[in-house]
């Protein structure tokens, strides 16, 4: 899942991004509304975590623009105000969810995951294919009932492949969904991660390389 965090309190923004990355999400961070509009114009995000009171361009205007463009991106709006009227106003702007500050990080994560599921075709909460079970919420992976410990990026790549339901996923698509914008697009990080993931998943191999196209399960 790819997430954009838009928050002018830089310590909070960076802390949220670090936490979401530990949950195997690809996260970009910006600190004002103008930068947010620039990012959503060039990158495809599953979820935007959007502070309402932003400098340069207000969060309300960022939300309106995302809605006007007809993007499948879901918006989780944050605000320091907990008034019901503010929450209602935010939802009427087109936000998909609303979370007042201060918030528990576990709740933020759960809401981001729930919104991320709404950007794609509905799938069961636990993904199963080729003897593998992947639970995105618990961040658990089992093969033939034996748990497998994966690093965050390995988990993210496996989740993308599982969600494709047998379709081929290109290296570029994996890079877009599992890494942030600071990753060099010419790096071999996808190939190395897939190779490590194959080894951890064991025999017989379940990740198939489709020459010139990408990977599938």
Automatic annotation (TrEMBL):
Superkingdom of origin organism: Bacteria
DNA-binding region per Swiss-Prot/TrEMBL record: 124-217
UniProt-listed CDD domains: REC_OmpR_CusR-like, trans_reg_C
TM annotation in the entry: none
Residue ranges of coiled coil: none
Domain OmpR/PhoB-type: 124-217
Protein name: Response regulator transcription factor
Residues carrying 4-aspartylphosphate: 51
Domain Response regulatory: 2-116
DNA-binding is among the record's keywords: yes
InterPro entries: CheY-like_superfamily, OmpR/PhoB-type_DNA-bd, Sig_transdc_resp-reg_receiver, WalR-like, WH-like_DNA-bd_sf
């Amino acid at each position: 899942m790819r997430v954009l965090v838009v928050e002018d309190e830089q310590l909070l923004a960076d802390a949220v991004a670090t936490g979401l990355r530990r949950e195997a999400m690809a996260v970009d961070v910006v600190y004002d509304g103008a930068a947010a509009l620039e990012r959503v114009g060039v990158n495809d995000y599953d979820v935007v975590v959007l502070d309402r009171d932003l400098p340069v361009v207000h969060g309300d205007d960022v939300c309106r623009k995302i809605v006007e463009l007809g993007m499948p991106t879901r918006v989780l709006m944050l605000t320091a105000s907990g008034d019901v009227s503010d929450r209602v106003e935010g939802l009427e702007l087109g936000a998909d969810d609303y979370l007042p500050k201060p918030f528990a990080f576990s709740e933020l994560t759960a809401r981001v995951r729930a919104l991320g599921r709404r950007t794609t075709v509905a799938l069961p909460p636990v993904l199963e294919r080729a003897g593998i079970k992947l639970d995105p919420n618990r961040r658990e992976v089992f093969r033939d009932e034996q748990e497998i410990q994966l690093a965050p990026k390995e988990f993210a790549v496996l989740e993308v492949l599982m969600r494709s339901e047998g379709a081929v996923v290109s290296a570029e698509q994996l890079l877009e969904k599992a890494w942030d914008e600071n990753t060099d697009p010419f790096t071999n990080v996808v190939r190395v991660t897939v190779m490590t993931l194959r080894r951890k998943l064991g025999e017989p191999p379940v990740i198939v390389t489709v020459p010139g196209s990408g990977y599938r399960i």
